C-alpha cells in the first residue's frame, strides 16, 4: 500500500452559519440550464450573459437517453483553454469535473489531457479509457481558493490534441470542513500539517456497513459507496444495518449535518470476534485499498 493519509472529518469544529451554495454549477457546451439534479442550477455556458470559458473551443450535442441530460452536451478543446470563475469568498471549495463519452464518440474516448487549477495538476494525462464504460466519470477535489479569479485550465496532451468537459462544480464548503492538521494512518505515525494549502483528491468515500448513498441523499451532493470490497477479512466483521435509528444530536462546535448525511450513521460494522467472545479485547476490522496518486506542483 502506498503512503496513506486518512483524514477523519468527523470530529472537527464547525461554525454552523452555512447554507448550500447556488453557484457555480456549469452545464458545459450547452445553452440551457439543467436543474434536474439535486436542485442545483447547472447554468448553460453558452447562455447569453454568462461567460465562463475562454479561448477557442467547440461544443457538441448528443442525445443519449440513458444518461442524465447534463451529459448531453460537452465543451471540446483543441488547444489549451480555461474556465474562469469569480470567487467572492476565500475558502475551501469542492471542485468536481464531470466527463461522459457516448459510445459513438471515438475522438473523445481517445482524448488525453491535463487539468490544472491553482497551480496544481488535478488530472495528469487523463483519459476516460481507464474508467468503466458507459457511465459518467466524476473527479472530485478540495481546493483552497482566494477571492478573485479562479481558473481551471484544460490542456490537450501531445498526440491527442483534444480535451473536453461536460459539467463543472465549484462551490464553497462549510467553514473548517477540511482540517489543517490530520493524523497519519496505516504504518505512518504522527500528523500531517498544512492540509488546507494542498489540493485534496477524493479517492473513495465509504459508507461503513451500508449501501450506496446518492448525491440526492447527501447534504453536499457527495456519493458514498459500500465498504464490502475493502474489508480485508469479511468474516471478522458483521454488518449492522440498524445500528442507529434516530437522528444524530450535534453538540455545538462539533460535526454537523454537512460533515456526513444522517444515513451514514445508521449503519455500522461490528467485530464478530469481539462481540461473541472477546469483549474488552482490541477491536480489529481492517479495510484496505490501493491508492496510487500524486500531485505535481507547477
Ligand atoms: C440560467 O441560470 C442563470 C443563472 O441563475 C439565470 O441568470 C438565467 O436566467 C437562467 N436561464 C434560463 C433560460 O432560465
Ligand atoms: C444526477 O447526477 C448523477 C451524477 O452526477 C447521475 O448519476 C444521476 O443520474 C443524475 N440524476 C439526474 C436526475 O439527472
Ligand atoms: C503525458 O504524456 C506525454 C506524451 O503524450 C508525455 O510526454 C508526458 O511525460 C506525460 N506526462 C505525465 C505527467 O505523465
Ligand atoms: C452501488 O452502486 C454501484 C455503481 O453505481 C453499483 O454497481 C452497485 O451495485 C451498488 N451497490 C448497492 C449495494 O446498491
Ligand atoms: C487485524 O487484522 C488484519 C487482517 O484481517 C491483520 O493483517 C492485522 O495484523 C490485524 N491487526 C491486529 C493488531 O491484530
Ligand atoms: C489492489 O491491487 C492488487 C494487485 O494489483 C489487486 O489484486 C487487488 O484486487 C487490488 N485491491 C483493490 C481493493 O482494488
UniProtKB/TrEMBL annotation:
Assigned GO CC terms: membrane
Membrane topology category: Single-pass type I membrane protein
UniProt keyword Zinc-finger present: no
GO terms, molecular function: ATP binding; protein serine/threonine kinase activity; transmembrane receptor protein tyrosine kinase activity
Signal peptide positions on this chain: 1-19
Malectin-like domain ranges (all copies): 26-289
Keywords linked to the UniProt accession: ATP-binding, Glycoprotein, Kinase, Membrane, Nucleotide-binding, Serine/threonine-protein kinase, Signal, Transferase, Transmembrane, Transmembrane helix
Keyword Transmembrane helix: yes
One of the Pfam families matching this protein, by short name: Malectin_like
Location, primary (coarse class): membrane
Location of this chain's protein in the cell: Membrane
Name of this chain's protein: Malectin-like domain-containing protein
Amino acid at each position: 500500500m502506498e503512503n496513506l493519509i486518512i483524514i477523519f472529518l468527523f470530529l472537527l469544529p464547525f461554525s454552523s452559519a452555512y447554507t448550500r451554495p447556488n453557484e457555480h454549477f456549469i452545464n458545459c457546451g450547452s445553452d440551457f440550464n439543467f436543474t434536474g439534479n439535486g436542485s442545483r442550477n447547472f447554468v448553460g455556458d453558452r447562455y447569453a450573459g454568462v461567460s465562463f470559458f475562454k479561448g477557442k473551443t467547440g461544443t457538441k450535442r448528443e442525445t443519449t437517453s440513458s444518461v442524465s441530460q447534463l451529459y448531453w452536451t460537452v465543451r471540446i478543446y483543441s488547444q489549451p483553454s480555461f474556465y474562469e470563475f469569480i470567487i467572492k469568498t476565500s475558502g475551501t471549495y469542492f471542485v468536481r469535473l464531470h466527463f461522459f463519452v457516448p459510445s459513438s464518440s471515438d475522438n473523445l474516448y481517445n482524448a488525453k489531457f491535463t487539468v490544472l487549477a491553482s497551480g496544481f495538476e488535478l488530472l495528469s494525462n487523463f483519459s476516460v479509457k481507464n474508467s468503466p464504460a458507459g457511465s459518467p466519470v466524476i473527479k472530485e477535489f478540495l481546493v483552497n481558493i482566494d477571492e478573485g479569479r479562479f481558473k481551471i485550465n484544460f490542456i490537450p496532451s501531445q498526440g491527442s490534441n483534444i480535451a473536453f468537459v461536460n459539467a463543472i462544480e465549484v462551490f464553497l464548503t462549510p467553514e473548517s470542513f477540511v482540517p489543517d492538521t490530520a493524523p497519519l494512518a496505516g504504518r505512518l505515525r504522527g500528523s500531517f500539517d498544512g492540509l488546507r494549502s494542498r489540493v485534496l483528491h477524493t479517492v473513495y468515500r465509504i459508507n461503513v456497513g451500508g449501501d450506496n448513498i446518492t448525491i440526492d441523499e447527501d447534504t453536499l451532493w457527495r456519493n458514498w459507496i459500500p465498504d464490502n470490497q475493502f474489508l480485508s477479512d469479511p468474516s471478522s466483521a458483521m454488518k449492522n444495518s440498524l445500528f442507529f435509528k434516530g437522528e444524530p444530536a450535534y453538540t455545538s462546535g462539533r460535526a454537523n449535518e454537512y460533515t456526513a448525511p444522517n444515513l451514514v450513521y445508521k449503519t455500522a460494522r461490528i467485530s464478530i470476534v469481539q462481540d461473541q467472545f472477546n469483549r474488552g479485547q482490541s477491536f480489529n476490522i481492517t479495510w484496505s485499498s490501493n491508492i496510487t496518486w500524486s500531485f505535481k506542483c507547477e
